[in-house]
Amino acid sequence: MLIVFIPVALSLTVIIIIIKEQQNKFQIPH
Hints:
Distance between the termini: 44 Å
Radius of gyration: 13 Å
Organism: Bacillus cereus
Number of helices: 1
Oligomer: single chain
Structural class: mainly alpha
Protein name: Excinuclease ABC subunit C
């Protein structure tokens, strides 16, 4: 299970970081 879980967790963390960065870019004008 860990062999399958680790890549999924890494991909999810990368997606979350990208979403947060995009939200920060939209919040810059404020």
